[in-house]
Amino acid sequence: MSLSETIETPDHRKLRIGWLDVARGVALLAMASYHLTWDFEYFGYLEPGTAGQGFPKIYARLIATTFLLLAGFSLALGHRDHIRWDRFWRRFAKIAAAAVAITAGTLYFMPQGYIHFGILHEIAIGSLLGLAFMRLPVPVTWIAAIAVFLVPQFYRSELFNQPWLWWTGLAPRPPQSFDYVPVFPWFAAVLAGIGLGNLEGVRSWLRRLPSPGRLFSPFAWAGRHSLPIYLPVSYTHLRAHETRGN
Fold first, then answer.
1. Angle in degrees, CA 235, 59, 226, rounded to 5
2. Is this prediction's pTM over 0.85?
3. pLDDT tens digits, 185-216
4. What is the spatial distance between Cα 107 and Cα 113, in angstroms, rounded to a whole number?
């Protein structure tokens, strides 16, 4: 679900970073393992509500953070020197279309908790907003990330309770949703990834990194096809739980 998996070498060749695919594949596996918590709740092996508290809640947030961090990191690797607009818009269109499909599907089948602004929505809007930070000094990007993370800790307003402003994340009470990943504070993870990807030392290290071996090939394959894997797995799981609930 990233915007790029390549980095440009000093002689202008595009070098694919296989380890980013592996990291994304591992994140997908982690997501699937978290969904098992819901299954264990349903079958009575865990207390109701376990998935939304304690370690499972932290685990879920770490998974979302990983996806967003990788999205920002890949964005910086692929577009820091110059934004490749054709490539950017193609990938953006795929992610935005998938986000709209998730909203439409969950609104139709699960209106009581439909996904109006989930992880795919955040990756899409975060990618657009992140372009403004491509040429900025890394410390500025990280300061912005800290600010985005802290804003909802100190400021919320009834003004943002309007449905068309839920994407901000600044409403006093989060709206009910199966997956809610608003700009504040989650855009901070995208910015942190951009800052990391813009570090020349990190970029140089990635260029020297050997390709993943066969042991990691399943993860790399999953990472390269993360969007078509994520969509049916996530949606089918939500739909199954809604059916069971009925």
1. 40
2. yes
3. 999 999 999 999 999 888 778 777 788 888 88
4. 8
